[in-house]
Amino acid sequence: MSVPTLTLRPSNPNHLPLHLHVSSSSTPMSLLRRSLRLRRRLSSISAAAVRQDTWTQAPLTLIKPASSDGSLFHVAVDISASPDLVSSHTRPGQYLQLRPPPPAEKPAFLAIASPPSLAASDGVFEFLVKSVPGSSAEVLCGLRSGDVVELSAVMGSGFQVGRISPPEEARTVLIFATGSGISPIRALIESGFNANERSDVRLYYGARNLQRMAYQERFKAWESSGVQILPVLSQPDEMWKGEQGYVQSAFSRAKQIINPSSTGAVLCGHKQMTEDVISVLVADGVPKDKILMNF
User: Where is the FAD-binding FR-type domain (predicted)?
Assistant: First the structure.
């Protein structure tokens, strides 16, 4: 028995026909219902695509070096005139695209460094931007306060902190960051995740040297909130007496995981670092669902 095919031509950018297969026993009314459901689905997909491609213009309020070697910059954008953008930042670890003025063509993907509460209270997004030669990020770092940039919608689900909450579920939380990966980690720490109610919260923060390590002025406040800061330098000068090498090596040397089932982890940074650390954590018995990343 042959199966009739109903072809719909939705109003989508590619104009691709969609085929709805129905049995020969289908009634005209059932065909109509299926057709309507499919059209509603196509409409919702089209609307989502439009929202994702929406850009918001906003002025810069701050551009200044975040590291003494000039490789990292603090960038702040005034989004107070865009309440939808403000309210869409709900969790640390979320990110967006930021597009400098023409002739810059490609937007930069940036994690939001400030906690959601700052957007709600002051209407500001803050970022930590690594200036890479020839990139849109380099163009961005060369702008001035008052210059207008374009922001995409906020993307990503951020760090799923609920997996390590309440504190009794993860008495130990190990945090790992390298380079500009400290940006969403700052948002996490300053959003608050009850660090002072846990028995052991450590931040292993890797950089080439102290000249490339951002947020040093925030370390005291972070430690006051219950986070132990462990800087790890891969190319330190002769005066450095702290941890040397790579983050994953420093952690492997220390470990000190007393109860793996009550341990959580948060990671952001170089791919090799995250892969190596996750392998060590899982091998030691840390549950995979308590290992958080922001993508």
Answer: 53-161
Which residues contact residue 164 at a Cβ distance below 8 angstroms, ignoring those fewer than 6 apart? 170, 173, 193, 264, 290, 292
Q: Distance between CA 107 and CA 183 in Å, rounded?
A: 18
Q: Which residue is listed with tokens 């400098």?
A: 100
Q: Are 275 and 291 in contact (CB under 8 A)?
A: no
Helix, coil or strand: residue 109: strand
Buried b (16+ CB within 10 A) or exposed e, 160-170: bbeebeebebb
pLDDT (tens digit, 9 = 90+) per residue, 208-262? 999 999 999 999 999 999 999 999 999 999 999 999 999 999 999 887 888 999 9
Q: Own/partner pairs for 240-248, CB < 8 Å, 24+ apart? A: 240/209, 240/210, 246/206, 246/273, 247/176, 247/177, 247/178, 247/204, 247/205, 247/206, 247/273, 247/277, 248/176, 248/272, 248/273, 248/276, 248/277, 248/280
If residue 162 lies in a helix (H) or strand (E), which one and from where to where? none
Q: Is the pTM of this model over 0.85?
A: no
CB-based contacts of 95: which residues, under 8 Å, 6+ apart?
A: 109, 110, 111, 112, 154, 155, 156, 184, 294, 295
Nearest residue to 152 (alpha-carbon basis) of 82, 96, 84, 88: 96
* DSSP β-bridge partners for residue 175: 203, 266
**3-class state of residue 143 by DSSP:** coil
Residues 6+ apart with CB under 8 A from 134: none
Residue 263 · residue 202 · CB < 8 Å: no
Helix (H) or strand (E) holding 223: helix 219-224
